[in-house]
Structure formats: C-alpha cells, structure tokens
Amino acid sequence: MNKGLKRRDVLKLAGWSAISASLPLGFRGYAAEADYTGPLFICLQVNGGWDVTSFCDPKMNVPGEEDINHWANTGEIQQTGNIQYAPFAGNAAFFEKYRDDILVINGIDAQTNSHSAGVTHTWSGRLSEGYPTVTSLAASAYGPTLPMGYVSGGGYQETAGLTRYTTLNNPDGLRDLILGNVTAWNPNQAYRHQEDLDRIKAYQLARLESLMAEEGLTPRQRHGLETYHQARLSREQLTAFAENLPGQGELQDEVDIFQGQRSTLLRQVQVALLAFQSGVSMAADLFVSGFDTHANHDAEHEPALQHLTEAIDYLWTYAEQLGVADRITLFVGSDFGRTPRYNSGNGKDHWPVGSALFMQKGAPWGNRVVGTTDEFHFARALNPDTLEVDEDNGRPIYPGDVQRAMRVLAGIDQHPNALAFPINTGDYMNFFS
C-alpha cells in the first residue's frame, strides 16, 4: 500500500470507486459543460393507456355495432389543418393552437395488453426489459458531464448504465441537498459562516489534490478521485439552479384531476424547464397517470385528457418565458389504447393499438398525421418506404419504429451508446420525412 495513503483514505477511495464502477464505460465525471446550448428532449409518459379514439384518432360509431364513443352520438369528428380530433375534453383548444407544431402517429401496435409490457415497449422500443429510454440515450450523448443531465418525474426510467437520473418529485429536498449549508427551517440561516465554509472547502480541495498526486494509485482509485473532483467543479452551477428553484408558495400545485386522482405534472414541467434554463440538464421524463379508466370512462377520461393538454400548453408557454422553447422536442405517448367499446361498468379496457405525438416549435414535419386505423380501431399495415396503407406487403407501426425515429430526430442513432442497443423492427419508417 502507498505509504502516503492512510487507511481511512483508502476506505474513502473504495467508496468513490464503488460509485464510479456504476457509471457508464468511458464516463469521466460530473463536471458541467459551460453554457450548454444544445437540443433539449422531453418524453411525457401518459400512464395507464389513453383513449386516442377520443383524442387524436377519433372514431364515429358504426351503425348496428356497440358504441365506440358516446360523444359520437351527438358530435362529429373535427379537423384543423391536416389533423383530425375528437370533440372531447380540451382537444379543440389544444389542436387549434399547436397543429403546426404537431406530428400525430396513429395505429401503433404495442403487441400487448399488459401495462408493464406496454410501458417497457413504448419507452424503450422493445417488449423485454433492459433497454434505455431515448432521453437517457440523449443525455449520455449530448450531456454526459452535465450535473443533472437526465431528470425524471417517474415512470419508465431505465438508463442501462449509460447515465444517471435525478428525480423531480421533491424540489425542496433537491434544493436542500444542493444548498447543504442552508438550514431547512430558514433559507436565510446557514449552518456555518461563509468564511469557515470557504476554509473547509479549500482544505478539502487541497487534500483531494494531494491524494490525486500520490503514486501507486490503482486505475479504479484514480478514477474515483477524478470523479469526486469533477463533481465538486459543477457545484457552482448546481447552486445557481437550486437558488432559482421556487419556494413552496411558488411551486405549481398538485392537481386533483378527478375523485382523488392527483397529479404533479405541472410541477414536474416547472422544475424540468428550470433545470434546462440553468444549463444543468438537457433531457427529462415527465409522468402523469389516471388514464386506466375501466369504469366511468367518459367521466374520468375527459378531465384526465383536459389536464394533459393544459399541462402541455403550460410546458410550451413557460418554455417560451424561459427562452428554451426553440430547443425542445417533446414526445407524448402511452402504454397502449383503450377498447373501441364500453364494458358493463361504462368503462373501457386495454387495447393494444394507440398513438403518439411529437411536438417541436416550427417543425418542418408539423401539421401531419402518419399511420391509420380502420373504423373499429384496428391498426392498418403500412408500406415502410411510402408510409401508405399496404395490406398485402406492409406491416403495422410498432413502438420500436417510433423509438428509432426519435433517435434519428435527436441525431443520436449512430452514437455508440445507441448502437449498443439496436432496435430491430424491420425496414426503417421515416415519420419525419
């Protein structure tokens, strides 16, 4: 053992080595990239299986068949630009305002009615577990050294060891963790005087640099020290983000969607966008539930969809205020869809066919719909090259096709981390052509 290293130092190194061992191969620490101005990515996970026949793939009732939608008994399918939508919830306001920024993909076959499999397939591109989210791939490619490159509000958040995620569920706890010298009960009171804290930090840094200069360190020990050192370098940027976080009275309130079904989606949006603006993050997963409406479907799904579209509107409005809207790509999806009929409890059950939305300000691929379903909401086969209906030689759209397209849109499809997790769905479907 190197004589310059005391036993307690070796134990500290072992701890940091264990942390660094969980980091992706080739990862060189947490030092913040100065003034990150690259693209920003958000996936909004609509948990439970949304009813797209009352949203972006509207269906009228078929004479002589069970009702697909009750609204279709008195209403008609609406259209703005090239996008059709149901006269339900807040759809009209949403699609009229954002149609030019939206690509709708209909007829996505999740190949399952299971929530767990549907979530995994939708957000990773394959049915079995182990593949990363596209947001974690983007974070590993664009922001591997950002201190909070990938943030998450919940849901599917697999990183496959490529990066790490920071949760958005407790902004106060996150602020207290970053601002470690500020007392939880009084933001204006510190545990130590700043002069004392500066001396402690200077001593810690000197001790760390001394340890790093020791000969005989193993590569694992040296990597652990470098990781710790670079983590300290990003503290100033994290501090600026923490100080920018609103207090309890200024955070977006938790929303009661219906009958005790509560949502923190607005708060997740708020904190994620502030992380983007502060330059500490560039990828986020947002999460909202309440769409698994096996009973009282219309009464519960309508306020859930209303909340969803209002939250998306808030996202773009707040992003404009923060000056980051032009850099954001938003992907909205769900486990799968809901049955094109009501059950005995006036609810709708699981249906493997669903839809997805992509949004980008001024998108050249906006105001478009790709994919289609028949009058009973069965997915129709498409020619992968032309994306036209081809029942003889085509195939359905799968979640993997959507994930592949997202990787291409994000410019990360040829990155080594993406190539390590290939998605094999057949011929590539270029939804953004």
- Order of adjacent strands in the largest pleated sheet: 6-5-11-1-12-15-4-16
Mind telling me the C-alpha Rg?
A: 24 Å
Q: Low-confidence parts, pLDDT < 50 over ≥5 residues?
A: 1-33
- Strand portion, in percent? 15-25%
Query: Which range best describes the helical content: under 10%, 10-25%, 25-40%, 40-55%, 55-70% or over 70%?
Result: 25-40%
Let me know the average pLDDT.
Answer: 88
Q: Structural class of the helices, strands and pairings?
A: alpha/beta
Say how many strands there are. Answer: 16
> Major sheet, described briefly?
8 strands, mixed
Tally of alpha and pi helices:
12
Number of domains: 1
- Shape verdict: globular
Order of helices and strands: HEEEHEHHEEHEEHHHEEHEHEEEEEHH
Spatial separation of the terminal alpha carbons:
61 Å
